[in-house]
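ERR on first pass: missing label on line 2. Operator R.T. fixed the label and resubmitted. Corrected input:
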Amino acid sequence: MNETGPAQSEGAEVEALARKAAAGDRDAFEALVEKTHGVVFRVALRICGSRADAEDVVQETFIRAISGLATVKDAGATKGWLCAIARNYATDKVRARGRRHIWSLDAPIEAGSTTLLGEAIASEEPGAEEQLGNQQLGAALSEAIAELKDKHRVVLTLREIDGLSYEEIASALDISIGTVESRLHRAREALAKKVKKLARELD
Amino acid sequence: MRCSGTKELMSRSLDGRLDKEGEATLSQHLAGCPGCAKELAVMRATSTTLRAIGRAEPPAGLARRAALAALNAQREGKTVRATSWWSELVRFAWPAATASAVAAAALLVVASGQGAGAPELSRDSDPAAVLSIDRDAISGNMMSRMLGEEVD
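pass 2 clean. output:
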């Protein structure tokens, strides 16, 4: 499954803006930032687990990028290159905090959205449906995601929450489609186990 | 098919990336394996819950703030390199003797002001050009390592 038309067209637009920005066109640089900061923000958010940190990473990414745009020979790879800068800075931020770092989903899980999950768990754990409230399930799910391995959590959240395609994730993280697939299935498998375990502990 | 072999099929099925043959193999296994069928139900329900959260959107005005901060930093000569890639090149690709030579050359470049701050968006400010390094000779994985990305 390759990129569709609109994705290719957006790629061409980013490429054209990157070329102009590299030549010193200020308006093109601003348009490039507007066009690409969303994915940079999401990648940073999923690594850092904090909106404030993600905003800081976005700003630092473009400060770092502006002097290097001219050195990017393949303008078509600009978005991936920006994501690489963001990944580096975000990872440094997380590493610098060490154990003090707390990853958060940074978005509420609406109580009504866990009904299906409650039913699925109840089918495995008879009686759990009556014991578990929707809020508890939401809390269990958030905690389970936070406990995943970093590389699994980033791919999972970019796919499931932010809705990035496999191709977009591969480009943003500079990994192959096969790696996206394997990380996703490992993340989902681990998450299913953790959710069931945490749900039992929370009741 | 063993249970362990179905996990990846389940995940791809959730994303609609499984072909007909794969779906048939998965269905056949699930029909005879209640454990995997229940696990897929939990995975599907988890996926539904997470997708209901919705894509994270950056705050309004962030793009403008980031662009202005970068342009101001550039004007004031306060920009930093995306990565000090030439020093990474030395670390990963070049023998120590060459590394010393490059470092010395880089110091000369910086001292003469050609490589410092990258005050303008220009190919002339590319240290690769200054140091006569052929960037095309650097592999994708090498660039990845320069950018600090893990290589699977």
